[in-house]
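During the second half of the funding period, the structural biology subgroup turned its attention to how the target accommodates small molecules. The most pressing case was zinc ion, which had performed well in the primary screen but for which no bound structure existed. We therefore specified the complex as follows and requested a full 3D prediction, including the ligand pose.
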Amino acid sequence: MPYLVREHLFIGNIGDAADILQNGSNKITHILSVLSSESISFFSEWRSGISIPCKEIRKVYSGDSGSKDVPHDMPKSALSPDKLLYSLEHAGKDLKIVRMAVPLRDMESENLLDHLDVCLDFIEDSRKEGSVLVHCFAGVSRSAAIITAYLMKCEQLPLEDAIESLKQSCESVGPNDGFLEQLKMFERMGFKVDRASSIYKRFRLKVLGDSYNRGEQIDGSKFGADPGLPAGTVSSNAEASPGIQASPTRAFRCKKCRRVMALQENILDHVPGEGESCFDWHKRRGGNPFRRPGDEECSSIFVEPLRWMKTVEEGGLEGKLTCSHCEARLGYFNWSGIQCSCGSWITPAFQLHKSRVDISTI
Ligand SMILES: [Zn+2]
Ligand SMILES: [Zn+2]
């Protein structure tokens, strides 16, 4: 039986969803399925003999979500554009249930964050029209993570309080550690997925680092636009956003030839001397224990990978970063991390030495 979490909001497992889809329900009108496959055939594979009718309404991919508020052509989300964000369909007995299906595996490395917006909107809208069941396979990790985020946002609850509150309805919930880390980021971003925040940028870089570690091809399309190219060629989307006024921003130029190598928006901030607390839920790596407050500032800046970094595309674990115009040595990259002079570890790291770049406003 599904557990009631709030008025018109239930949590359950695959059996609960199958039962409602096969037999209908006098209370549930909407189902949010979070399973490793979005296909309704997942139910027949789970238990042979089950056949659930469905009629597709639409499928939405990560790249479809528009790029109107994205500066240059920075990837909007850490998901690849061809990744299915969700599918929506009429399903079940007499096609009476509206089912949104989000493909997500229960793994720590899985990108929950980039699915949250659509899930939370669906829950909110469904509760206005009827009642919604959020389910995954066991009703323990994925569905609980999404409902936790929903409670955090609606009731402005810190992560721990939201989980505690959910446990009052359903004792067995326990999102996996990777999801907990991401929910903590969600809290720190102000109960939203703020893709311009440095928290999100570091998350996106971590996702890229994970795919590097899995041996996936890292090509320049996953990198930020090259700010040194003349405006206009920087982004094919530039004309699509005429309403956005370019405001003055800090630019980092090669000291030798003055080519722009990075903009403020490419910088990944870190708190000097602090470990990776912003995305290490468990193993908080300490900063440098010998560092005292007031020690000298960081000697490097860390940026997201940018398209001029040809040495990164060659696929090595680490290497030099050189100016694409005059070939001056600017810094270093290492997918497994670099320690800043302040003691902080940045992983993965794309580092520019402050002594090799000039800062100006453009
Ligand atoms: Zn530092
Ligand atoms: Zn140069």
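Two results from this model are relevant to the next phase. The first helix runs from residue 14 to 23. Residues 173 and 230 are 52 Å apart (CA to CA).
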